[in-house]
Amino acid sequence: MPSSDPTTLRARHTLEFPGGYTRTTGPVIGRFLTELRDGRVVGVRTAAGRTLVPPLEYDPDTGDAVTEEFVEVGPAGTVESWAWVNTPRKGHPLDRPFAWALIRLDGADTALVHAVDAGDVKAMRPGLRVRPRWRAERTGHITDIESFVPEVTRIVSEVRVEYSLRPGLALARFLQGVAEGVLIGCRCGGCHKVYVPYRLSCPECGVPITEEVVVPDTGTVTTFAINNLPDPRAPEVPFVSAYIQLDGTDIPMIALVGGIAAHEVRQGMRVRAVWVPEEERTTSMSNIKWFAPTGEPDVEL
Ligand SMILES: [Zn+2]
């Protein structure tokens, strides 16, 4: 392109070797590229014992020739620094935003430059763990590694906690009853309210409770919730958990409702406990499979 300054002539030249420019690699780089073709990354040891990746023919620190010892490194490594490329150009390894990064592969003492396909600049940070994404067809070129990708550091896993409960005196008494197929409640001597499960003092008047009463296993649904997430205690999804006020008691207890489609459960519905067979009973609430409709007319709440 001619310059506007008439005393200086300038022209832009492009040096191109259509079809490729072949040069010999030398034994060190040649070994590196050959290993890449086979899906391995190697470095070369210097006389001082450092591992150069990519390998060089001379130790940059001393200028001495390197040893003939090659060591496999990585292939995973750690990002030391990077530059984010928002608009990839022709010839870039990826056609979407990526990072040029200095990556120190595990076992190497120097870092190599390569692309990191992190998806978002926010994913880049010093110390980011990455590993190579290899091309299926490899030719012995640095681009045999298409790019590096972040290692998977987070997975979604199911959590289930099992624990055993040491019941207090009152709950122990209640569960003892449950083991025998009986619901044990108590009556406050002050306000005469009946509570189930059994408790040792009245939440209303605070006085100690001494009178034990056996309450029926029938009751009325006061409120309920349809649950769409699985629960180890529930037989299926969706399932219904409900507050059930047992007959003759003054506060409801929470329990599963079954034997009816979830959407048919309603407030005021009459229910009865469905007990597991006697031989399967333990000292736990799982002795009651759930509460099922009795078929009686609904109760006005
Ligand atoms: Zn009371």
From TrEMBL:
<dbReference type="InterPro" id="IPR052513">
    <property type="entry name" value="Thioester_dehydratase-like"/>
</dbReference>
<feature type="domain" description="ChsH2 C-terminal OB-fold">
    <location>
        <begin position="71"/>
        <end position="135"/>
    </location>
</feature>
<dbReference type="InterPro" id="IPR012340">
    <property type="entry name" value="NA-bd_OB-fold"/>
</dbReference>
<feature type="domain" description="ChsH2 C-terminal OB-fold">
    <location>
        <begin position="212"/>
        <end position="276"/>
    </location>
</feature>
<dbReference type="Pfam" id="PF12172">
    <property type="entry name" value="zf-ChsH2"/>
</dbReference>
<dbReference type="InterPro" id="IPR022002">
    <property type="entry name" value="ChsH2_Znr"/>
</dbReference>
<protein>
    <submittedName>
        <fullName>Zn-ribbon domain-containing OB-fold protein</fullName>
    </submittedName>
</protein>
<dbReference type="InterPro" id="IPR002878">
    <property type="entry name" value="ChsH2_C"/>
</dbReference>
<feature type="domain" description="ChsH2 rubredoxin-like zinc ribbon">
    <location>
        <begin position="176"/>
        <end position="208"/>
    </location>
</feature>
<dbReference type="Pfam" id="PF01796">
    <property type="entry name" value="OB_ChsH2_C"/>
</dbReference>
